[in-house]
Write a structure and sequence with these properties.
Rossmann fold, 25% strand, 7 strands, alpha/beta, binds S-adenosylmethionine
């Protein structure tokens, strides 16, 4: 991991992800989570205040070991106990059928082998489990897409691997998961290339 990713990016990430623009989206995404919960790309713990009151414990994973120190304040002030693993979501160290819920917010954009990570999510979910997600990605508008493709290489460098142009709906649907609920919309007050959101819920595809 380079110096930028280690020392500078965690501060930028914490600042950007604490935006009030994302609060409704976080609240909505987490409103129905229950049971044994895994959050991938835990980041700086931004979702902690938005879990329902009855959630007392979750498992969190994040590949960037330097992110965790930025999460400490939120972890201390939360009623939720987090079992934290500094690991890659492409290789989850949990047995099959471990979780009732998997959560991902603004993370699928930056996982390198996204197919592998989504397959892992499907593997660790229990048969009736649910995958709740809120992600930014590829816009359906040609003009916006054009700039998302153009700016993707530079964005990846500046944002430690974040892709602007992933079709989240197609990706989730291609990995043993079936989308049961999906809202697609532009986030307000955000440039369209960063702010096209896919918010929804998926389950294991029985076929
Ligand atoms: C944009 S941040 C979002 C953080 C948090 N989910 C939120 O909503 O504020 C993306 C996070 O995904 C993590 N990440 C990227 N690739 C990952 C991987 N392969 N496995 C686990 N975490 C990963 C990054 O370290 C970063 O903390």
């Amino acid at each position: 991991m380079g110096l930028y990713a280690k020392y500078i990016f965690p501060h930028i990430l914490d600042y950007v992800m604490s935006s009030s623009i994302l609060v409704d989206c976080r609240q909505d995404t987490l409103s129905e989570v229950k049971g044994d919960i895994l959050e991938i790309g835990f980041g700086t713990g931004m979702n902690l205040p938005y879990y329902p009151e009855n959630v007392r414990r979750i498992t969190g994973v994040d590949i960037n070991i330097n992110i965790h120190s930025k999460a400490e304040k939120r972890l201390k002030s939360s009623h939720i106990q987090v079992d934290y693993y500094p690991i890659n979501a492409e290789y989850l160290p949990f047995p099959d059928n471990t979780f009732d819920t998997v959560v991902s917010t603004f993370t699928l954009c930056s996982i390198k082998d996204i197919h592998r990570a989504l397959s892992e999510i499907a593997r660790v979910l229990r048969p009736n489990g649910r995958f709740f997600f809120a992600e930014h990605g590829l816009s359906p508008d040609y003009q916006v897409q054009k700039w998302q493709h153009r700016l993707n290489p530079i964005n990846k460098v500046l944002s430690c691997g974040c892709n602007l142009n992933r079709n989240i709906k197609e990706l989730i649907g291609s990995c043993n998961l079936k989308i049961l609920k999906l809202d697609q919309f532009y986030l307000g007050k955000t440039p369209k290339i960063f702010g096209y959101l896919y918010k929804g819920m998926a389950a294991i595809n029985p076929s």
